[in-house]
Amino acid sequence: MEVINALGRRKSAVARVYVNTTGKGNITINDRPLDEYFKEEALRYIVKQPLDVTGTLEKFDIKVNLDGGGIKGQAEALRLAISRALCEVDKEAYRSVLKTSGFLTRDAREVERKKPGQPGARRRFQFSKR
After folding, report:
1. Contact 82, 27 (CB under 8 A)
2. Which end of the chain is more exposed for a tag (fewer CB within 10 A), N or C?
3. CATH classification of 3-101 is 3.40.50.970, yes or no?
4. Burial class for 22, CB neighbours closer than 10 Å (0-12, 13-18, 19+)
5. Environment class of residue 25 by beta-carbon count within 10 Å: exposed (0-12), middle (13-18) or buried (19+)?
6. What is the mean pLDDT of the chain?
7. What percent of the chain has pLDDT over 90?
8. SS3 125
């Protein structure tokens, strides 16, 4: 029984994943099952994508600590963390499949900060000639 850990980030969400190499496919997020934590089917699909692509849905038990960000950012951070952990498990078997699917790339887009003297990051106050 080996436990492999990995980290995934997206926007301000951070996912710490602990993959147990012997398991039945249980995913536990912050001590809650996957279906209870992510209510939307689309978010559950995002989380399970790396496992679907590699064909390891029923093979590993995954324990996750998630914090920060919104639910979409958390789901995508978790996808990256699971992908990185699967690469640690078996690099030759899973890395090429995950890389071609784009699951090993960290999405570096962050929210641009609000600038002083204007209402938003890019938004300006309405211009008045007179």
Report:
1. no
2. C
3. no
4. exposed
5. middle
6. 93
7. 88
8. coil
